[in-house]
Structure formats: structure tokens, C-alpha cells
Amino acid sequence: MTEKYEKEATGYTMTTVMEEAARCLLCHDAPCSKACPAGTDPARFIRSVRFNNVKGAAETIRENNALGAICARVCPTEKYCELACSRTNIDCPIDIGGIQRYVTDFEQAAKMDILKKGSSNGKHIAIIGSGPAGLQVATTLLTKGYAVDIYEKSEKAGGYLTYGIPEYRLPTDIVEYEIKRIINLGANIHYNTTVGEDIMMADLKATNDAVVVAVGASESKMLPMFADNPNVETAVDFLARVKETKGNISDVPNSAVVVGGGDVAMDVATTLRRLDVQTVTDVAYEEFSEFKASKKELKGTRKAGVTILDGYIPTRVSNNEVTFNHRHIDSELKIKADKIILAVGQRVNTTNLNIDINNHQEVPYAGYRTADPKVFVTGDIAQGDKTVVWAVRKGKDVAEQIDQLLTRDEDSDLVLGGK
Ligand SMILES: Cc1cc2nc3c(=O)[nH]c(=O)nc-3n(C[C@H](O)[C@H](O)[C@H](O)COP(=O)(O)OP(=O)(O)OC[C@H]3O[C@@H](n4cnc5c(N)ncnc54)[C@H](O)[C@@H]3O)c2cc1C
Ligand code: SF4
């Protein structure tokens, strides 16, 4: 059971990666590179692979993206670089994610150590949250000579990389290796430390030149009718439990109903099937034409044997039976299952952090700097897509902004103040 849950799809070999790279048109205007939110520069690293320079390809990826091996596996490339790829007009886009995975696997196997810590500039930055956004902020600042402390409420770093995305899509050893690289660069991670409880924002502001809030949307939403029902679990809690035990949970049900139509719901449903749950039904509010889950995830979920029903709203729940009514037609469904899993979105918790969050679970203004000149936000709570590659991009952006502000003329009113 565990092996089935953990098994990642096979990657390219040296021969097959060369074949795939040979399909690249080496476009002069590189639309793929322009479409990567994190600036990972696929056109440049694929060109290096084409000319047998895998080391050079690894350098390009790593210099632009602290989480290159992770993005290679989980980035929805069909929405970004592969959507823009010129090869699409001939047959199908280049498998940019697959080539990136080959190159970063090579980097790991060759124990390459590409990023170097910058010489100290005497400035200290505190980062709240060690998800992809916090990790990227830390990396960029460390290479520029800042001292970085990360405060993380969980036992392990990584946010949803560690506690959310299933093992078969993102193996734990890959995440751990990427984090180790950032620790070796000098990041000081304080585990089991919730800012707002164990240490206060005011203390971080008093002892650092800037504070970056990268707390993500790390809690699951609950619908009131399901609260306190012992058969119900939230998606994030379920996925974290499965990932932590590598698929060895003690309460695998015989049947399950998943409520939700996004990528997280697809992850839950597919994970259940990989744990050998016999009957898995996913019921989504959206109709297929408006589905939130990516086509790739939807296809994978169907292939795993999940029944997906679209356009239904849960209207009643009694013990382990949920009643759904269709949004547009007169149709009622009653589904009984051992386990009910809610995948209806995640929620931000900024208790005691003095950060305002709007109904979209974001800070209510564009940009990264808050009304408090010393406090910045990034990752899922900042505006923009909620994906790992965007967390990397927002992490790079906020680090550059802080660096610019802190290295300006001391008399400038943009210099961070107000300890
Ligand atoms: C199940 C699942 C599957 C996903 N799959 C994909 C995918 O395939 N591809 C993709 O691109 N994106 C995917 N995403 C989205 C992606 O994981 C997020 O966009 C990304 O993790 C956001 O990064 P972040 O750093 O902003 O926040 P997070 O990853 O949420 O990290 C925030 C961190 O802050 C910590 N924290 C929170 N509050 C405090 C506090 N007060 N004090 C200290 N620490 C605190 C948390 O413990 C956590 O470690 C998925 C998300 C989920 C839930
Ligand atoms: S757009 Fe596609 S074909 Fe052109 S350089 Fe990028 S990967 Fe190669």
C-alpha cells in the first residue's frame, strides 16, 4: 500500500532527455522563459542540455529558483511555460518540467553547490513561515549577505511542500534536500515556534531590520454543517497525516466522499485510491466547464478510478450520509461513506500578527510592503497566483525590494524605520 502511495512517475534517462531537448526550436524570443513567473529561464537551460552542458543547465535553474527541483515536479507548466511554447504549433509543447527534473536530479547526484552566501552586510531579517515563499526570501537574502532567521510553527520546514502535496507527486527526500541546501547557505530555522504565541511580532521588529510574513493559507476551511461530525476530516489535515506517515495511516476507510473540485480535492481523491480505498466519489460545486482543478490533475484522478460528479452542493449531513442537490437541475444525491473529506479551500490565520486579510484570503492591497514600513508580506497571502512557482517569484521580489530599501541612502524616507 505504501509503495503505491509513494511511487513517483519515472523521469528521463540521459538518452531520452536529449531526445526531448532536441525537439526544442531554440527560439530567439524564448516565449517559454517570458512565461515563467519565477524567471527560471527554460530556453537557456534547455539550450545547455542540447549542447550536453547539464552542469550549466543546473546553474541556470538554481541561480533563478531556490526550489528548482520542486518546481520541476509540481509546477502547473501547462498554465505557464508550456502554454507559451512555440513547439505547440507543430505537435506538442516541450516537456519543460521533465527536462528540469532531469537537470536538478543530476545536480543533486553530482552534489553541486551552486549558490554561495554573500559576505555579511550586518543586517538581519526575520521571516515568519518556512513554506516556499519564506524559503525563497531566505535564499535571495542570504546570497546578498543578510543574516536570516526563519520562525516556523511546525516541527518541519516546507509548508505545503512538506505537509500537503502528496508523496507520489513530490517525494519528501527532494523537499528535504532543497531545504538542507538553504540551511547550509546559513538560514537559521526556529522550529515549533509560532509567531504571535511563542514569540511576538514586536520582538522580531525590535531585533531585525525587516520582518517578512510568509504564513500562507495553512488551515482548512470547514463548512458549518460538517463541523463536529466524527466522520469528517479536512483535506489539509488528511493529506498531512498521510504524508507524515508515508501512507501508513491506521484508519484507511472502505469508502470515501470528497467535497470539492480544485486541485486539492483531486489530490485527496487520488491519494485515497492509492491507499486502496475501494469507492471514492468526488462531488464538486463547479460544473466541468468551470472546473478549478487543472486538466492534468482531473485526468489523473479519473485514471485512478475516482467517480467525479459536478454541479452539486451539499445541503444536509446526517452521520456518514451526505445529501447533495444540483445547482441547476432538480436532482438530489445521497452518498453514504465511511469517511467524508472536505476540500473547500484554505484559510489564513494571522492572529496577533497585525496583518489585515480580505475575503480573498490576501492582504487587501497590491505589493509587499505593509502600512508598517518594517513589515512585508509574501507568498499565498500576497496578491497573485497561489502556486509554488509564484511563491518563488513573490519571494524573490520581496527580497529585492527589502535589499533596495536597506541599501539606500540613510536619509531617504524609504529606508526602513520605526524599531
Ligand atoms: C494539497 C495541496 C496541493 C498543492 N499542489 C500544488 C501543486 O501541485 N503545484 C503548485 O504550484 N502549488 C500547489 N499547491 C499550492 C502551494 O502549495 C502554495 O501556493 C504554496 O505552498 C504557498 O507557499 P507559502 O510559502 O505562501 O505558504 P505555505 O506553503 O502555506 O507555508 C506557510 C508556512 O508558514 C507557517 N506558519 C503559519 N503561521 C505561522 C506563524 N504564526 N508562525 C510561524 N509559522 C507560521 C506554516 O506552518 C507553513 O509552514 C498545493 C497546495 C495544497 C494545499
Ligand atoms: S518556447 Fe518551446 S521550443 Fe521555444 S525555446 Fe522555449 S521550450 Fe524551446
Describe the overall structure.
- This protein is α/β, with parallel strands linked by helices and 419 residues long.
- The chain has three domains: 2-109, Fumarate Reductase Iron-sulfur Protein, Chain B, domain 2 (Orthogonal Bundle); 124-217 and 356-406, FAD/NAD(P)-binding domain; 220-344, FAD/NAD(P)-binding domain (3-Layer(bba) Sandwich), CATH 3.50.50.60.
- Helices cover 36% and strands 15% of the residues.
- The protein has 16 helices and 15 strands.
- The protein has helices spanning 2-6, 14-22, 31-34, 42-50, 54-64, 68-74, 81-84, 96-109, 132-143, 160-163, 172-185, 201-207, 235-244, 263-274, 295-303, 388-406, and strands at 124-128, 147-151, 188-190, 210-213, 219-220, 232-234, 255-259, 279-284, 307-310, 312-318, 321-326, 332-336, 339-342, 346-347, 375-377.
- The strands form four sheets. It has a five-stranded parallel sheet, with helices on both faces. A five-stranded parallel sheet has the order 6-13-7-8-9.
- A hairpin with a 2-residue loop joins β10 and β11.
- The longest helix has 19 residues, at 388-406.
- It starts with a helix and ends in a 13-residue tail after the last helix.
- The mean pLDDT is 94.
- The structure holds flavin-adenine dinucleotide (FAD) and iron/sulfur cluster.
